[in-house]
Design brief:
Blueprint lengths: L24 H7 L1 H61 L4 H10 L4
Keywords: Membrane, Transmembrane, Transmembrane helix
Length: 111
């Protein structure tokens, strides 16, 4: 009496082995080593290019912010000087001159 053998795991439904068995990822990579190296190198270059482009736009944004802050600082300095001048002018009207001398010491003016 013959004992039937179970079909092997590599057999297809028809009982025949597939001649074009798919290779695993690493076997495929080793077979096409140059293509994979070129792919990874080009991917690296692309990622570096995108990163440098992002940094370029970030630098441009920072330069614009710097210019806006300088303009704001100039405006604040002008405003502060106007306030100083108007306070000194009002203090000069006072007959005793004590308030004017105190303001001049606070502002650090020698005039």
């Amino acid at each position: 009496m013959a004992i039937p053998t179970p079909p092997s795991s590599s057999a297809t439904a028809g009982g025949y082995q597939s001649p074009k068995r798919s290779l695993g990822f690493f076997a495929n990579a080793m077979k096409r080593k140059n293509s994979f190296i070129q792919f990874f190198a080009m991917t690296g270059i692309l990622l570096l290019s995108v990163r440098s482009l992002g940094q370029k736009y970030r630098i441009n944004d920072l330069m614009e912010d710097n210019a806006a802050l300088k303009e704001e600082q100039e405006g604040l300095v002008l405003r502060m000087n106007n306030i100083k001048q108007s306070l000194l002018a009002e203090a000069a009207v006072e007959p005793t001159g004590a308030f004017a001398s105190r303001l001049q010491r606070l502002f650090g003016d020698d005039s």
